[in-house]
User: What shape does this take?
Amino acid sequence: MTKWFKREKDNLQSAQKRDVPEGVWIKCPACEAVLYSRKLERNWHVCPECGHHMRMEAPRYIDLLADHGTWSEFNEQLKSLDPLGFKDSKRYVDRVAGSMKKTGRNEAVTTGTCAIDRHPVVLAVMDFKFLGGSVGSVVGEKIARAIDRSLELKHGLVIVSCSGGMRMQEGIISLMQMAKTSARLTRLADAKVPFISVLTDPTTGGTTASFSMLGDVNIAEPGALIGFAGPRVIKQTIGQDLPEGFQRSEFLLDTGFLDQVVPRRELKSRISEFLTWMNGRGS
Amino acid sequence: MKDFVLEFEKPIVELEKKIAEMQELSAGGEVDISDEIGLLRKKADTLRKEVFSNLNRWQRVQLARHPRRPYTLDYIKLVADRFQELHGDRSFRDDHAIVAGLATIDGTDLVIVGHQKGRGTKDNLFRNFGMPHPEGYRKALRVMRLAEKYDRPVVTLIDTPGAYPGLGAEERGQAEAIARNLFEMSRLRVPILAVVIGEGGSGGALAIGIADRVLMLEHAIYSVISPEGCASILYRDATQAPKAADAMKVTAPDLLEFGIVDELVPEAFGGAHRDREQTAANVKTAILTRLAELREIPLPSLLEQRVEKFGEIGVFDE
Ligand SMILES: [Zn+2]
Assistant: This one.
């Protein structure tokens, strides 16, 4: 299910291309326009020439969505253990440590409270840079606790997904995080608390097949890869190339699995629109 | 297929054949070879104990996938008094990789939903090797809703390599179908019992695996990704699957140790396929015992505990 190992490598390469140090010129992978990194950063990593959405890290999404000065992180202290004693070419614990060093964060999801256009919310943002955004015990637990907080405060929940699926280094325990998060979401639904799911590039595997697809509204950034099976696996299974645009946001909008495709610059105002309606007048 | 024998089963099966032959000979009554037969029997016993009591993880994976292993419909035939299969998701089509219907076991009415593998090439194509499309999961949910309406418990039988990774499956929302089942099963207002009878292949297995109790046959496996898939990612070599099975700890005893499953249901010695009737009888006992237990729990507690059961799974440092 999970492809994070390869993806992480992809990400390393793309990180060199995309995650630019100051004052560097870089090329848009879509239109090949040469862009000044600071300008790209100011434009929320969207190519000003063609609108291509590049990957963006969790703190930047928080900057994008949260009203200034309202963000308060919780459960950042949760860290992964190694329940299986898993080791391939590298030990799992070393991979986690490497990702912590690389990102400056403890895990592949960051959770907290903030306001979005003055709507109080609980916000969870996933991070592909951390082991491919893969979901293990910590990500599952942090999402579950974010749901609990949302329920307790009766504040809407917004999850920004970016993940290659479940984390195979935690084996069956990671698979069960799909059950854990989905089951917990029923409580939010029964209590009529809003849940808005934002899918970004890429959201695949068990992540899509659990909380990411369970929003009251599911919206995605343009051109994001979204699906259950990865394109490589499908290609292998059917023995032919995939159609152009297959498993991209616009395709999922067409086939009926997304409510809207929303450009990054409009995410905040769109989420705010939904929350205004969901929270009702006067809230 | 009927004669399929795994590599490590071979010496045992050969010995058993020899014993059968000699018995036939001795039944002819010409020579008395009962002593020899007795000796061979002892030898076979020892060999069976040696092999089957010390199965490694990869051998268990092979047993879980054994082509002669009983599948969902086999168990239904062996444990249910009556069964009426229901077809279709009412939206797209009938998915033959999932079987669902109204059953009665020992006088108890219930719904059974299970993955269905095929036997032989033709049947396997018909069953898509037990790999469901979204419509299979939607059929499963539709029939589980009937259980809810009539206040009957649900028993699911899990046995799939995984949800099918194809164009149509993605187009029709494989991810959404699985997510929807996880969500709706979590709050289905009747008891749910899941039994992993063979292969618990990732999200495609879990999609009918949310339950109040999760049981596993002794030689079944349950895994986040197939050992082959894991090996091809981690070691760039699918033939390293045995190593991956060890690393991911996919066997029933592993899962019992992790607290993911509640009980291991014993199989016939050497695997379910060596004595289907006996294995099915064990499954039947487990189902009836567990359903009786679940019936005693008031619905609000049952639903609360179901969410908590999965909520407790996770290992981390705080
Ligand atoms: Zn561009």
Q: What stands out?
A: The mean pLDDT of chain A is 92. Residues 55-278 of chain A form a domain with the 2-enoyl-CoA Hydratase; Chain A, domain 1 fold (CATH 3.90.226.10). Chain A touches chain B through 68 residues (CB under 8 Å). The pocket of zinc ion is lined by residues A 28, 30-31, 33, 47, 49-50, 52 (CB under 6 Å).
